[in-house]
Amino acid sequence: MPDSEKPVTPVTFPSAFLWGAATSAYQIEGAVREDGRTPSIWDTFSHTPGKTVDGDHGDIAVDHYHRYREDVALMAELGLDAYRFSISWPRVQPTGRGPAVQRGLDFYRRLVDELLAHGIKPAITLYHWDLPQELEDAGGWPERDTAYHFAEYAQIVGEALGDRVEQWMTLNEPWCSAFLGYASGVHAPGRTDPAASLRAAHHLNLGHGLAASALRSVMPARNSVALALNSAVVRPLTQSPEDLAAARKIDDLANGVFHGPILHGAYPQSLFETTKSVTDWSFVVDGDLAQINQPLDALGLNYYTPTLVSAADPAAKGPRADGHGASEHSPWPGVDDVAFHQSPGERTEMGWTVDPSGLHELIMRYTEEAPGLPLYITENGAAYDDKPESDGRVHDPERIAYLHGHLSAVRRAIADGADVRGYFLWSLLDNFEWAYGYAKRFGAVYVDYVTLERTPKSSAHWYARAARTGTLPEAEAV
Asked: Where are the catalytic residues (predicted)?
């Protein structure tokens, strides 16, 4: 029979699979000057002229700080099992040092209680890029002390919420913090110092290890400690030795710089060779790698699009676009002989190629890289130019197709033996998209940025059906 007449075969997920959505504090909370909160690096960066689209900032964002009950009710209506959110460090510990501000912690206590009352599992990320500005003024992540301050903060939050929250992540996408924040400068704090970016990467790793130990010292043993990496799926343009070497360099700087010490207790030797013109790595001291290499209870993987590279044409001049924002400074320290290419295929509003095969590839890589370690897809989603129709509804068939393709890739990986325990859609709500301001909409729920009214898009209803049934509806279903 023709393909169009073949019956649809449901793609069934394990019964315990978690269906979730994710957000981060600075992108949604607002209330940046309430209850003792002080500026983070993103407050400073977004209020610096020219750093964000249209000068947008997160002062109000989508006002989740005051509307969290409404947002939790939306999650419950959509049938979500879990909600991944981040804690605002400067809301809890305004200077990044010293005792907590209880008013700040109280907000997260209320949020957790509201989630639990609706049967939704909270999953906490301690750091989603909002370093207290006072710590940046003291040197930021390139300074070793920041890792120790992070561990103190982790202990404070673990003591306050560890009795009710079982899933914890120390860091979200440390690659972005280190290399977009300190090398290319397209993210806060906007510095362009390649050597500092490598120091930042190491101290983020150290901060993770110290925070994992701190959390375990104050929380029940049943709790899970993990982190979320935006590990890249790096593909060579051709199988030539030069292109394979280029892919290896980028893989070291995108992936090995984090999973090497975190999973295996060592940095790749090839990473040292690639970056020897930038630093001698003398900031790695005895005992660091053992501290970083803490046992993990799970690993979070964030995926959006693959990375396609080749050896660069020596005659090419100027910065090479790599999908991480426009900058004359590279986020890849020590690498000036690699060219980045647009993968073929459909693109999202971010200009990122839609390629679910990359998610399958990533999952299977980490199934081999960390055998026996449960995996979660902690971010996956797409930005499209969503607009309400005359009846007020928001139809986003492109996002439904995106989710169908990527969740199918997750299911294939599970069938291939991967232990994937859950999926967190990025994002629950349209929100402040960092340097892109409010110009890019990733949410399953549309937010009118004037009225702040929330409207679930057709993709939200599709995802709700998937979450309730544990199967994937047809991509056309709404």
From this structure: 379
Q: Counting beta carbons within 10 angstroms of the beta carbon of residue 145, is it exposed (0 to 12), middle (13 to 18) or buried (19 or more)? A: middle
The CB density around residue 77, as the number of other CB atoms within 10 Å, is: 13
Q: Please choose, from the candidates 329, 171, 323, the residue with its C-alpha nearest in 3D space to the C-alpha of residue 233.
A: 323
Catalytic-residue membership of 379:
yes
**Contact criterion met (CB below 8 Å) for 353 and 345:** yes
Class of the CATH-defined domain 3-469: alpha beta
- C-alpha–C-alpha distance, residues 274 and 33, integer Å: 43
Q: Are 291 and 207 in contact (CB under 8 A)?
A: no
* Type and span of the H or E element at 31: none
* Distance (Å, whole) CA 305 – CA 285: 35
Among 332, 333, 352, CA closest to 342 = 352
User: Residue 30 and residue 272: Cα distance in Å, rounded?
Assistant: 41
379, 433, 453, 476: the catalytic one is: 379
Question: N- to C-terminal Cα distance for the chain?
Answer: 26
Compute the radius of gyration of the chain from its Cα atoms. Answer: 21
For residue 64, give the nearest of 93, 95, 22 by alpha carbon. Answer: 22
User: Amino acid identity of 335?
Assistant: V
Cα–Cα nearest to 349, from 407, 433, 425 = 433
Beta-carbon contacts of 96 under 8 Å, excluding residues fewer than 6 positions away, are 89, 90, 131, 132, 134, 135, 146, 149, 153
Main-chain dihedrals φ then ψ at residue 332, nearest 5 degrees = -115, 85
Taking only the tens of pLDDT, the chain with its 478 residues reads 444 444 445 679 999 999 999 999 999 999 999 999 999 999 999 999 999 999 999 999 999 999 999 999 999 999 999 999 999 999 999 999 999 999 999 999 999 999 999 999 999 999 999 999 999 999 999 999 999 999 999 999 999 999 999 999 999 999 999 999 999 999 999 999 999 999 999 999 999 999 999 999 999 999 999 999 999 999 999 999 999 999 999 999 999 999 999 999 999 999 999 999 999 999 999 999 999 999 999 999 999 999 999 999 876 654 455 767 666 899 999 999 999 999 999 999 999 999 999 999 999 999 999 999 999 999 999 999 999 999 999 999 999 999 999 999 999 999 999 999 999 999 999 999 999 999 999 999 999 999 999 999 999 999 999 999 999 998 765 5
For residue 310, give the nearest of 377, 234, 366 by alpha carbon.
234
CA distance 208 to 139: 18
Each residue of 190-203: b (16+ CB within 10 Å) or e? bbbbbbbbbbbbbb
